[in-house]
Automatic annotation (TrEMBL):
Keywords: Membrane, Transmembrane, Transmembrane helix. It comes from the Eukaryota. This is Uncharacterized protein. The chain crosses the membrane at residues 489-512.
Length: 518
C-alpha cells in the first residue's frame, strides 16, 4: 500500500494537474469562451465570479416556509453535507463515521489524504463562494476543507456502493473496506439518499464530480452518477453532457425529473411498436420545445459574455399565447378532479414517457383523453419535490423555469379524494408505494408551491380541457352516462324505470282503446 502511494515528484505534479484539468473541464462546460483561457488554475477565481454561468450559490430555504410548511422536508434527517447543517446533534451518528469513509475513499485513489486536502485548499474560496454569505465564516480554511473533503467522499462512497450493489450484489469493489450499509443499516441508507436531494444539504456539483472521477475514473464515475440519478428518480435518462454543469444535485435531479423519457427499469415498457414510435416522436417534440423555450436565454448568455457587461440581465422568454384565448383563461379554470373530468367525458391515459413535459390532451366529439406521465408515490416524493420547488423559487433559478412547480400544482388540482387516486392507479399513472390512497392525497396536498400557479407551462392543455368542459354538446352524453350508468345498480334502476313507464303507457293505451273496439 505504502509503495503504491510513494510516487516521485513528477507523478505527484501530474496528479495535481489532473485535478486542475478536471476543474477546467467542468468550468468550460458552463461558458463557451473558457477554453480560450490557458491557465485554468490562475483563472479559477475569475470564472467563479460569473455565478450566472458557472457555480451557483446553494440557496437557503426562506424562514417563512420553514415556519409554516413541513420544515422537516428542508432538513437532512441523518447526514449533513456542506456547512448549513454541519454539527447538528441528530446527525452526529453519521458524522462520526465520515473519517473512516474518507480513508476508504482515499484507498481507491492514487493520492495521499494530505495531498487531497492541499488540493481542496487551493479552491477553498470557490467552495466558500458556493454558500450564502457568512455561512462559512465560523470555519477556518483547514477545518472547512476537511469538512468538504469528508462530505464529498461520503456522498461518492454512498453513490458507488449503492449502484455497484444494484449491478452486482456480490461485487468485490468494497473488499476490505468499510461499508456504509453494514454500519448504518438499510433504513438509514434510504434516508441518506433522501438527504442528498435536500437543497440546503448540497456540495458544489463540480466538486462532487471531481471526487467521483478520483474514485472511479471519469467514464465510470459519470456513468455511476447517471445510474444513481435514474435509480433515485425512477427514470431512465441520459443527461446531455454538453449542457451547462448544474450547481448541485438538486438542480441535476430536477433536469432528470423533467426530461425522464421512460421508466423502462421499472416495468413501464412501450406495449407495441406504435407506442415505441410515439415515444421517439415525443422525445423529439419535447427536446424541440425546450430548445425553443430557452433559445432567448442562450442568446442572452452569449451576448453577456461577448459584451462583458456584468450587470446585464437576459430577457425572460415570453410564453406564446394560444390563438383565440387570453392569458387569464389559461390561468383560471373551473374543472377540478380526475373523477369530475371523467364525469364530463375526459378520460385519463398514461403518457408513453414520464417526462413532466409529456402532458397532452386529445379531443373527441363526445369523449376526450388527458395523457399524464407516470408518477411514483414514495416516502421520498414530497421531500424531493419540495426541495426542487424551493430551488425553482430561489434567486438562483436564473432561467425562471418553473416546470416542476407547475406540474405539482396541476397534479394537485386533479387529486381531491382517494377516488381520484384509485382512478389514476387503474390507468397506470400513479404507482402507490405508500399504502393507502388517502396518503397519496395528503402527500401532494402537503407539497408547498409558494402560492405560485405557473399555469402557463400547461396553458394549452388547460385551455383544451376547459373548452371541452364548457361544451354542452360534448358533455351531455357523458353527463347522462355518469348519472345513470356509472354503476350496475343505477343502470338497473334506470332500465326498470323505463320499463315501468313503458308498461304504464301501454296499459293506459289499451284502457282507452280496448282490443274489442273497432
Amino acid at each position: 500500500m505504502e509503495e503504491s502511494k510513494s510516487k516521485d515528484s513528477g507523478e505527484l505534479e501530474e496528479a495535481s494537474n489532473e485535478v486542475h484539468v478536471s476543474l477546467d473541464v467542468v468550468n468550460s462546460s458552463a461558458t463557451t469562451n473558457h477554453h480560450q483561457q490557458n491557465d485554468a488554475s490562475a483563472n479559477t477565481s475569475k470564472f467563479w465570479d460569473k455565478e450566472r454561468y458557472g457555480v451557483r450559490l446553494i440557496p437557503k430555504v426562506p424562514a417563512f416556509v420553514r415556519d409554516k410548511y413541513n420544515s422537516d422536508d428542508y432538513d437532512p434527517l441523518v447526514v449533513s453535507l456542506g456547512p448549513y447543517h454541519h454539527g447538528h446533534p441528530r446527525l452526529k451518528f453519521v458524522e462520526e463515521l465520515k473519517p473512516e469513509i474518507l480513508k476508504s475513499f482515499v484507498n481507491h485513489t492514487s493520492f495521499h489524504e494530505q495531498l487531497l486536502l492541499n488540493e481542496v485548499l487551493k479552491v477553498i474560496n470557490d467552495l466558500r463562494g458556493s454558500y450564502a454569505k457568512g455561512s462559512t465564516d465560523m470555519f477556518g480554511d483547514i477545518v472547512f476543507a476537511q469538512m468538504m473533503l469528508q462530505d464529498a467522499a461520503f456522498a461518492v462512497e454512498h453513490i458507488v456502493e449503492h449502484i455497484m450493489d444494484q449491478l452486482d450484489p456480490n461485487n468485490q469493489d468494497f473488499s476490505g473496506d468499510i461499508r456504509l450499509d453494514e454500519h448504518l443499516g438499510r433504513g438509514v441508507m434510504e434516508h441518506v439518499t433522501r438527504d442528498l436531494y435536500v437543497l440546503e444539504n448540497q456540495i458544489p456539483f463540480w466538486f462532487l464530480k471531481i471526487a467521483l472521477h478520483m474514485r472511479c475514473g471519469k467514464r465510470e464515475g459519470d456513468q455511476l452518477l447517471k445510474n444513481f440519478l435514474n435509480w433515485s428518480s425512477f427514470r431512465s435518462v441520459q443527461v446531455d453532457d454538453n449542457l451547462p454543469a448544474p450547481g448541485h444535485l438538486v438542480q441535476e435531479i430536477r433536469t432528470v425529473v423533467i426530461a425522464g423519457w421512460s421508466s423502462f427499469d421499472h416495468g413501464w415498457f412501450p406495449s407495441s411498436k406504435r407506442d415505441y414510435d410515439r415515444l421517439r416522436h415525443r422525445e423529439k417534440a419535447i427536446i424541440l420545445a425546450k430548445i425553443r423555450a430557452h433559445a432567448e436565454v442562450i442568446r442572452s448568455a452569449a451576448l453577456f459574455q461577448k459584451a462583458g457587461a456584468e450587470n446585464y440581465l437576459p430577457q425572460v422568454p415570453q410564453v406564446p399565447q394560444v390563438e383565440g384565448s387570453s392569458s387569464m383563461t389559461k390561468i383560471i379554470h373551473s374543472f377540478h378532479s380526475v373523477t369530475e373530468l371523467k364525469s364530463k367525458g375526459i378520460h385519463i391515459r398514461r403518457s408513453v414517457t414520464n417526462s413532466l413535459m409529456d402532458v397532452s390532451f386529445r379531443s373527441g366529439f363526445f369523449f376526450s383523453t388527458l395523457h399524464l406521465p407516470a408518477a411514483l408515490a414514495t416516502v421520498r416524493t414530497r421531500s424531493v419535490y419540495s426541495n426542487i420547488i424551493a430551488y425553482e423559487m430561489s434567486p438562483q433559478n436564473y432561467e425562471k423555469d418553473y416546470t416542476v412547480t407547475a406540474y405539482v400544482n396541476f397534479f394537485k388540482s386533479l387529486i381531491e379524494s382517494p377516488k381520484d387516486v384509485k382512478e389514476l392507479q387503474d390507468k397506470g399513472v400513479i404507482k402507490n408505494m405508500l399504502g393507502s390512497d388517502e396518503e397519496v392525497v395528503k402527500l401532494y396536498k402537503d407539497i408547498y408551491t409558494f402560492g405560485i400557479d405557473c399555469s402557463t407551462v400547461y396553458s394549452e392543455v388547460i385551455e383544451k380541457i376547459q373548452k371541452h368542459y364548457n361544451s354542452r354538446a360534448r358533455t351531455w352524453l357523458a353527463d347522462l352516462l355518469h348519472s345513470y350508468f356509472h354503476s350496475p345498480w343505477t343502470a338497473i334502476a334506470l332500465l326498470g324505470s323505463i320499463l315501468v313507464i313503458g308498461l304504464t303507457i301501454t296499459q293506459a293505451y289499451y284502457a282507452i282503446h280496448p282490443k274489442g273496439d273497432k
